[in-house]
Amino acid sequence: MATNKGEGAKAVDKTETNPIEEKALGCSIGNLSDNKDVFTRADKIDFKSWDLQLDKHLSKAWSRDKDVSLVTKKDEWEIDLAKLDIRHVIAHGTYGIVYRGVYDNQDVAVKVLDWGEDGIATAAEAAALRASFRQEVAVWHKLDHPNVTKFIGASMGTSNLKIPSKDSTSESNNSLPSRACCVVVEYLPGGTLKNFLIRNRRKKLAFKVVIQLALDLSRGLSYLHSKKIVHRDVKTENMLLDARRNLKIADFGVARVEAQNPKDMTGETGTLGYMAPEVLDGKPYNRRCDVYSFGICLWEIYCCDMPYADLSFAEVSSAVVRQNLRPEIPRCCPGLLASIMRKCWDAHPDRRPDMDEVVRLLEAVDTSKGGGMIPDDQSPGCFCFTRRGP
């Protein structure tokens, strides 16, 4: 049926448009409701232009929604700070302080990183600390092994983190800077392996205990390496003990996923005295730098003594690389254990065993006949430590 001009205008007048569509479509059709005597012929409408403008409008809206969701979305490792109660200091580290606390009715250790917002650190240094924090959390929250400290959660860039006042008589809490962050892990009452060895420096450890600690450490490292993770700072100070003297690897501040190209892993990362020659020399390295460090730790566990105690850091660094310096193995050390030490700290990384092989070698050690380090006051004839150095 034909329609006259008046009927066409009425039809257009009844067409509903919302403000967003009108703005998106622009002046291609104008505001039809402004003039009831004017209508647009379908063959004159530029539908392609409509589509382009509407697509731009929707893309901007979707982009805004996505940005909002990214800001509000929490990382899977983020903790609920309302459940965290920080108590007192238990240790001071290079980049922060470790507190004892309670999280969701569980005893925990809380590592609070110092962003350097007191004006001492530069913006680049603060950014490096934040990157280190994210790296540590990214590595740690995916791990699950009895010889790796259990990760509970973390928080980053919060103003709600509270620590007790330095004044023990005060009931008030001090709030950390707005960019403060923390890592929450299970609390291990046995302290560090290093302190345990220091406490036993005079009487030494039973051989069975030596092998048990060495196995715990080797199994933990074997697990990390199976996940393509290189710890890069294996030392007795970074190993913790629980109430039953089970050892657990801690502190993943410099750990990283192993690069496929060894050249991507260079630089002096770690602690002098435990660092492999290739790391000290700035050469490419891989997970076998951890094997070298394990060999030093194994010597330390057996001897309950400090490696290179009479040498400076500079002397150790130079002698390890250029003179093949290693800790002196006592003559009373069982041959199989001494052999494992030497294999682990071989100057050539390719000749060092993998950690799963080290586990098998230690499991084969017979501890039924003793063979632990002989204390000096019990064996006048033992001169294991009369000479030190290269």
UniProtKB/TrEMBL annotation:
Keywords: Kinase, Transferase. Pfam families: PK_Tyr_Ser-Thr (PF07714). One of its GO terms (molecular function) is protein tyrosine kinase activity. Residues 84-365 form the Protein kinase domain. One of its GO terms (biological process) is response to red light. The keyword Transferase applies. InterPro entries: Kinase-like_dom_sf (IPR011009), Prot_kinase_dom (IPR000719), Ser-Thr/Tyr_kinase_cat_dom (IPR001245), Ser/Thr_kinase_AS (IPR008271), Ser/Thr_Kinases-Pseudokinases (IPR051681). GO terms for cellular component: cytosol; plasma membrane. The keyword Kinase applies. PANTHER family: ATMRK1, SERINE/THREONINE-PROTEIN KINASE TNNI3K-RELATED. This is Serine/threonine-protein kinase STY13.
